[in-house]
Write a structure and sequence with these properties.
The protein has twelve helices and 13 strands. Helix 6 (about 160-170) packs across helix 7 (about 185-200) and helix 7 (about 185-200) crosses helix 9 (about 250-255). Strands 1, 2, 3, 4, 9, 10, 11, 12 and 13 form a nine-stranded mixed beta sheet that branches. Helix content is about 35%, strand content about 20%. It has helices at about 5-10, 30-50, 95-105, 130-135, 150-155, 160-170, 185-200, 200-215, 250-255, 260-270, 280-285, 350-360; strands at about 25, 55-60, 65-75, 80, 85-90, 235, 240, 260, 300, 305-310, 310-320, 325-330, 335-340. The radius of gyration is 19 Å and the shape is globular.
Length: about 375
C-alpha cells in the first residue's frame, strides 16, 4: 500500500477481478480459446517479470469464466498457487472504505460535503477539507506512507491518533480542492470517521455491513489464516526474500484487506449492481473529481475511472509488503478481471491490459466483454 499509487503510473489500467466462494462458474463464449489466450498471456508475464506466484480470474456479471493460479504461494515449500489462495490487496481496500462512507450518508449520519474538522475536531486538519476531497484525493493532505516514521509503524503497529496527528500537522501539498494527488492519509482518516460515527471498530463495521451480507468469507481485515494464504516476497537484489508484513494498524482503512480472486469477483459484481450502496451512491462514486490522474482517466470515490474502446471502466491497484493487486470492471457489461501476485515489485497492470486487448479486441472472444 505504501507505494500503491506507483502502479497507477505504470500502465493506463490494471485489472484485478475478484470473486468469492459463493460465485458460480459458467462457460464463456469460446471457452477453450479464452482459456488458452489468458493462460498464454499469464505465463508470459510471469516469466518476463519473474513473479513467484499469481492468481487470475475473469468474470462477467459475477459468473467466473476463468480462474487459475500460477507459480507458487510459498517459495520454501514450493506449494503450488491455487486460484483460491488469499493475498493481500493493499489499496483496493479503499473501495470498501468509500462504500462504508456512502452507506453512512445513506443512513443520514454524514454528508460527503461536510468538513472533516467537524468529525475530527481533536486534530488540526485545515478547515477547508471536506469528506469528498478525501474520497477523491483532492484534499492536499500529505501521504503518511512517505513519513520517516512509517517503518516503525509498519513493524510495531501504531495508534490512529498518532498517524492522524502527524498528518494533520504536516504541511499541505496544495490548497484543498485545487489538485489531485493520491494520498493514503485520506482513507486512513475516513476509517476513523467510520469508527467515530458507528462506535465500532472499522473491522467490525466492515464485517457487519459488507463482508457478511455479501458472503465474502475469504476477505479479511486481520491477517488471514496462514494455511490459506500466500507468502509475500520482495527482491533484495540477490533474490526473493519474504517481505515485511505490515501491522494492520499501519495500513488500516487505506490498505489492510486480504482476499482471493473469487471474493473480489463477487464484490465487483455486487458493487456495480446496487447490492452494496444505492444507485445514487454508486453514481457519486463513479463521478470524476474533475482532474486527470497520471496515465489518464480520473478518480471517483475509491475507484479509478477510465475507458477502454470508449467503454467506461472502474479499476484500482494495490501494493503492500509482498503483494500487488489489480481489479477492473466494465460498467456496461460487468466483465471484470482480477490479478493478485505475491511479489511487491510486480506490475499486474501489464497482464490486465494484455488480457483486455487479447480478449476484448478478439473477434472470437469480444462477446465476453
Amino acid at each position: 500500500m505504501a507505494h500503491a499509487h506507483r502502479i497507477f503510473l505504470l500502465f493506463l489500467i490494471a485489472v484485478v477481478l475478484a470473486s468469492c466462494g459463493g460465485s458460480t462458474v459458467a462457460p464463456a463464449n469460446n471457452v477453450s480459446l479464452l482459456t488458452s489466450t489468458v493462460d498464454g498471456l499469464a505465463h508470459s508475464v510471469m516469466q518476463e517479470q519473474n513473479i513467484p506466484g499469481m492468481t487470475v480470474a475473469i468474470a462477467k456479471g459475477g459468473v467466473v469464466l476463468y480462474a487459475q493460479g500460477y507459480g507458487v504461494s510459498d517459495l520454501m515449500t514450493q506449494q503450488a498457487m491455487k486460484p483460491g489462495v488469499i493475498s493481500e490487496i493493499g489499496s483496493i481496500t479503499k473501495q470498501f472504505t468509500a462504500a462504508l462512507i456512502m452507506k453512512l450518508q445513506e443512513q443520514g449520519q454524514l454528508r460527503v460535503d461536510d468538513l472533516i474538522a467537524s468529525y475530527l475536531p481533536e486534530y488540526s486538519f485545515p478547515p477547508a477539507i471536506t469528506i469528498r476531497m478525501m474520497l477523491t484525493h483532492t484534499s492536499g493532505l500529505a501521504d503518511f506512507t512517505n513519513f520517516p516514521q512509517l517503518g516503525d509503524w509498519v513493524g510495531h503497529g501504531v495508534g490512529e491518533a498518532t498517524v492522524l496527528t502527524a498528518v494533520s500537522e504536516a504541511p499541505l501539498e496544495f490548497q484543498p480542492g485545487s489538485r489531485y494527488s493520491y494520498s493514503n492519509s485520506n482513507y486512513f482518516a475516513l476509517g476513523t470517521i467510520v469508527e467515530k460515527l458507528t462506535g465500532q471498530t472499522y473491522a467490525t463495521v466492515l464485517q457487519q455491513q459488507i463482508l457478511q451480507p455479501l458472503g465474502l468469507t475469504k476477505t479479511y481485515y486481520s491477517l488471514p489464516p496462514a494455511n490459506q494464504s500466500a507468502t509475500g516476497y520482495t527482491n533484495n537484489g540477490l533474490g526473493f526474500v519474504p517481505a515485511i508484513v505490515w501491522d494492520r494498524s499501519a495500513a488500516f482503512a487505506a490498505g489492510a484487506l486480504s482476499a482471493n480472486v473469487y471474493d473480489l469477483v463477487v464484490w465487483d459484481n455486487a458493487l456495480i449492481h446496487g447490492k452494496v450502496v444505492s444507485p445514487a451512491s454508486f453514481k457519486a462514486m463513479t463521478t470524476s473529481n474533475g482532474f486527470q490522474i497520471p496515465g489518464g482517466g480520473s478518480y471517483g470515490f475509491g475507484l479509478a475511472l477510465w475507458t477502454f474502446n470508449n467503454r467506461p471502466i472502474i479499476w484500482h491497484s494495490g501494493q503492500i509488503g509482498g503483494f500487488t493487486a489489480e481489479t477492473a470492471v466494465f460498467l456496461e457489461s460487468g466483465f471484470s478481471i482480477v490479478v493478485l501476485t505475491n511479489d511487491q515489485d510486480a506490475n499486474p497492470d501489464e497482464l490486465v491490459l494484455k488480457i483486455m486487448n487479447g480478449v476484448c479486441k478478439s473477434p472470437q472472444l469480444s462477446g465476453n466483454c
